[in-house]
């Protein structure tokens, strides 16, 4: 798959910093694409709203935590606010880097920047 050199990147303001509280998201529509913008403990991330498993609207899923490696017979919970669960099949994705917790698939990420108090997405 080759990139199209004639296509230029756009920078679009999608929110103001105070608009998306930690643990929350905003879904935006840009050029026909649905994109979820997440505040993960003060770190902003943006992902295409399509699960790489079955093309579900993944950004509408539950944001929470997951079980951590634990001693036999115990279950330790952690990473609250950092894990996105797909609403269709429950696949879990790390919101900090987009990687699936149980597979090699990952969410399609978009570049974000803070410009003053604006969250700017590059597409």
Features:
123 residues, mainly beta, six-stranded antiparallel sheet, three-stranded antiparallel sheet, 0% helix
Write the layout of secondary structure elements.
Blueprint: E1 11-16, E2 25-30, E3 33-40, E4 43-48, E5 62-68, E6 76-85, E7 92-94, E8 109-115, E9 118-122
Antiparallel strand pairs: 1-9, 2-3, 3-4, 4-8, 5-6, 6-7, 8-9
Could you give a quick summary of the protein structure above?
By secondary structure, the protein is mainly beta.
Structure description:
By secondary structure, this protein is mainly β. It contains no helices and 9 strands. The protein has strands spanning about 10-15, 25-30, 35-40, 45-50, 60-70, 75-85, 90-95, 110-115, 120. Strands 1-9-8-4-3-2 form a 6-stranded antiparallel sheet, with no helix packed on it. β8 and β9 (about 120) form a beta hairpin. The chain starts with 10 loop residues before the first strand and ends with a strand.
């Amino acid at each position: 798959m080759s990139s199209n050199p004639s296509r230029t990147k756009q920078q679009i303001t999608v929110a103001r910093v105070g608009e998306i509280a930690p643990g929350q998201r905003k879904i935006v529509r840009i050029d026909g694409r649905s994109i979820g913008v997440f505040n993960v403990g003060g770190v902003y991330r943006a992902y295409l709203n399509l699960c790489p498993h079955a093309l579900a609207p993944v950004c509408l899923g539950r944001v929470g935590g997951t079980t951590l490696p634990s001693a036999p017979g115990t279950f330790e919970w952690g990473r609250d606010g950092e894990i996105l669960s797909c609403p269709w099949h429950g696949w879990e994705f790390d919101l900090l880097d987009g990687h699936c917790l149980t597979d090699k698939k990952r969410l399609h990420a978009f570049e974000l920047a803070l410009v003053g108090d604006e969250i700017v997405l590059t597409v």
